[in-house]
Amino acid sequence: MLSLQIHHRTTYRYRYPVVLGPHRLMLRPRESYDLRLLSIDLSATPEASITWAEDVFGNAVAMANFHTPVASLCIESRLKIELHAVPFPIFAIAAQAISYPFLYTDQDWIDLGALATMQSSDPSGRVATWARGFIHSKPTDTLSLLKDLCSGVSAWVTYRSRDDEGTQTPVQTLELGSGACRDFAVLFVEAARCLGFGARIVSGYLFDPDGCLVGSSGTGSTHAWAEVYVPGAGWITFDPTNRGVGGHNLIPVAVAREISQVAPVVGSYQGSPDAFIGMSVDVRVTT
């Protein structure tokens, strides 16, 4: 069991005072049998009215509404959690899903819905062709196939930190051969969907006490990874950026169909077109 503290600060700066629109904040970790949230302190400067709700995926969403023009905005969250995930998990995969290909039950298929359907455009089938290259025989071991796919992403794609907004399409990532953790996660999820799996994007934090993991800054950072639904085992965590399986060093905050749905902070402002100077994000994950 790990006791962790997470401090996440996002700062926006403007040349002139602007009127802030509502900001959507996804900063509260998803509690589970692997993660216990001990405390959360969410604040904004200037002060905001904050309300909480759950989205369609069960993520905790805070809406911050501001009342006065501002020249800067700082959003901070301070968390204390217990992480109980083990480094080398054993997955109790159902007998009918041990070998690939397998069929989800009709009920699972209905519930997975869009999570089992590719969401990005790929008219030439580039991603599907690439994904099928990891199938060495039929039948083949399901978990081994997913592990090979996870490792294959980082073998094909070189990690490159990107400060620009947005995410590359899986086709762009394959063609460029480089990307950030969010691009790795999207490529893995879409490739898994091409193979018939239900898969979803996860955003949250990476704990890296030794400072040796890809995509990490210091002992921790924001991060994106994936989960695949396998009958019996449930949602299995895959971190294609670090070829990881299981969530012993990952703190999930939000899950969704697409990466744009799990951004930590999303908002708008009204003001001069050249008012925006820039933003900075500082994250610390410590024991």
From TrEMBL:
Q: Gene3D superfamilies from the entry?
A: 3.10.620.30
Transglutaminase-like domain: residues covered:
173-242
Supply the InterPro entries for this chain. Bac_transglu_N, Papain-like_cys_pep_sf, Transglutaminase-like
What this protein is called in its record is Transglutaminase-like
